[in-house]
Amino acid sequence: MTYMIDAWLDRPHPCLRILNRETGEICAVLHEDALQELREQGELDLSDFASCEPATLKELVRNLFLFCYARALRPSLGG
């Protein structure tokens, strides 16, 4: 399965989606708060998005998926 990153990072409310390249299905979504958290952790390097290296892009997608799953597993606050 191959993925495509659809990132809108220069907006007032940035967002990023990971799509299945073959079907267009949305596999993961990161909104402004999640992207800010990734930046604060030093895990989001905007230069990676401009890379043409398959290994760099594969690692980027992998890390974004891992972050999404880890975030989903956190206990909810105030719950």
Descriptive overview:
The chain contains two helices and three strands. With 79 residues, it is an alpha+beta fold. The chain has a three-stranded antiparallel beta sheet. The longest helix has 20 residues, at 54-73. The radius of gyration is 13 Å and the shape is globular. The mean pLDDT is 90.
Annotate the secondary structure layout:
Layout: E1 3-8, E2 15-20, E3 26-30, H1 32-41, H2 54-73
How would you name the oligomeric state of the polypeptide chains in this document? single chain
| Overall strand count | 3
Largest sheet: 3 strands, antiparallel
Outline the low-pLDDT stretches. Answer: none
- Alpha-carbon distance between the termini? 36 Å
The SS-based structural class is alpha+beta
Count up the domains: 1
Q: What is the H/E string?
A: EEEHH
Radius of gyration over C-alpha positions, nearest whole angstrom: 13 Å
Helix content: 25-40%
Strand proportion, as a percent range, falls in: 15-25%
Q: What is the overall shape?
A: globular
Overall residue-averaged pLDDT value: 90
Q: Which sequence of strands runs across the widest sheet? A: 1-2-3
Discrete helix count: 2
In short:
The chain is an alpha+beta fold and 79 residues long. It has helices at 32-41, 54-73, and strands at residues 3-8, 15-20, 26-30. Helix content is 38%, strand content 22%.
Task: Provide tags for this entry.
79 residues; alpha+beta; 38% helix
